[in-house]
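Q: I have two molecules that I believe assemble together. Could you output structure tokens for the complex as a whole instead of separate predictions?
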Amino acid sequence: MAKWGMVIDLDKCTMCGTCIASCHIENNVAIVGPEEAKKNRAIFWMDTITFEEGEYPNARIKIVPRPCMNCQSPQCTYVCPVNATQKGEGGIIGQIYPRCIGCRYCTVACPYTVKYFNWYKPEWEKEFKKALNPDVSLRPRGVVEKCTFCTHRLQKAKEKAKAEGRKMIDGDYWPACAESCPTGAIYFGDLEDINSKVYELHRSPRAYRLFEDMGTDPTVYYLMEGR
Amino acid sequence: MKRADEHFGEDAILFDPIYKPGKGFYVALSVFLAVAGFAVYLYIRQYFLGLGVTGLNRPVFWSFYIVNFVFFIGISHAGTLISAILRLSKAEWRRPITRVAEIITVVVLLIGALHPIIDMGRPDRALNVFLYGRYQSPLLWDLTAITTYLMASTVYLYLPMIPDIAMMRDKGTKFKWLYTILSWGYEGTPAQKHVIEKGMTIMMVMVVPIAVSVHTVISYLFAMTVQPMWHSTIFAPYFVVGAIFSGTAVLLVVMVVLRKIYHLEAYLKEIHFKHLGTILLVMSLLWGYFTFSEYLTTYYPQEPHEMKVFWYKFIGPYAVFFWGMVATNLVIPVLLLSFKKDIKGIFIASICVSIGMWLERLNIIVPSLVSTRLPYPTGFYVPTLTEVGIFLGGIALFCLGYLLFAKLFPLITVWEIQEGREHGIKEVNDRIRSYLPDKKIDVI
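A: Yes, here they are, computed for all two components at once.
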């Protein structure tokens, strides 16, 4: 069994925002418009968090890309009343949109606040409609959604490897954000495969996870900035 | 022509709301129906447009509806619980209060139980809870506890009503067919009386742990997450105390109103208010003790995520609600109930507590959500007309339920009052004698 994980090298990240844009396009994330965005209702499967560290003469800003932490002890799946969010293949936390009752218990239970809710029926402008990805289902109104590590790409990669009569190798399955990152700051792969790049990186002394002490066991690792 | 209610003897006034409704009844009925109807319109609009019509956002995913859910279910804890405890402890002053209290429970539970569905993004899929239900989720615990409590308190309200319904079937003039069905052929024979009393005793004993379980699991809804200031071990007793506290306050408000509009001064006397006022005072102090304990344990270790919520409440945007809650739940009621313990003082204290306990639910739910662990930009949650309207609709529905109940059944347990006159006085005399070291008269 694989355990899919992500390593984000903060030294390489330039905060260009390509990961956010590619994620939006890949996963048919709805564009809610400026009115709704002002009400804090914009949806970002991949987002950035701005940490302000220190005080005035020594103040600095640290910006960190934030996908779903994909915890292996996920608070959100513990509380879901209908099993609409659950740990699936390779430890990926998935969402079942047709089953979700929209109680938003998972959104309030997530310590990283990575879950989003469809307050209205998602709509796309004409041009965007043409660009919708047929591999990702469109979400209806009133359900919760979040980053799924582009799990549809895993299905594709598996099928492809099967057709070619080989086992999956490192680099077969990458989510859109990792693939599009211009500086190559986002790595993705099987954390349990000793030949993978992420295996090596996530054991580096620079590696850390968000709120590691909370016991949620995320599979998204960050490589600390060298100062 | 004979007066319809002449047969009811000295308790005839209790049947006035049924046989002589008056103009006020129809005015009140139409006002409450209008407000409730408006709320239904708002909900239908929300159903078709989506939850976007509320003021909810990220990270305030839960707010008004869940606050009202906890608040309404909390109120329900006064009725059945107080009535059961008073009956079990053989408190003789319970007689006019029991049914008044039990109706609150049933009506408010029905309204409170609607709120999780109102809050759902997909109410059309609510039955998925049965199809794919995960019993590990605290929401399912809520569902179980609330439905059990609703069943138990409905039965507990209905059983003592049977003798009164039979009385109205035999002596009344209106709705005879209804009372014939509902009285189940009760004739008042000793065997029937025995069965009803036995049933009541069973329900009394059962309803107490069920009531406690309800607010316990509602607190678990929050306490089972890792969110700062929700993840607290004292939440279960804290919520139960708060629930009984708010319930007692609402019971007192309802009693004052009923006393005024149905002229029940002879039944709901000042002494009843004073006794219940003492319970309210004790609950207020107990609530203050829990609140103090909760906030001191948060403050002392200075854990940063918890402190973010703490300051948000103490000096941040929620300071006005937090200190308003302290004033209305602790300062004003304790002062009033200690120094001005007449009906007026108790009424003001109860109104304060009803508002204060609503603020308490708001203070628990919203600040923890706004203070996310990661530094996200968070706005300030402002409810929209939809949320406020549905809240007012809930209150109107409560009044409506009470009004319709009063139109069909006597609000005060008539047979229990009669029993008090016929047997209670002697029984209490005997009981007091049995407490004393006087060996000669040792009855019961």
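A: One point stands out. Chain A is about 25% helix and 20% strand.
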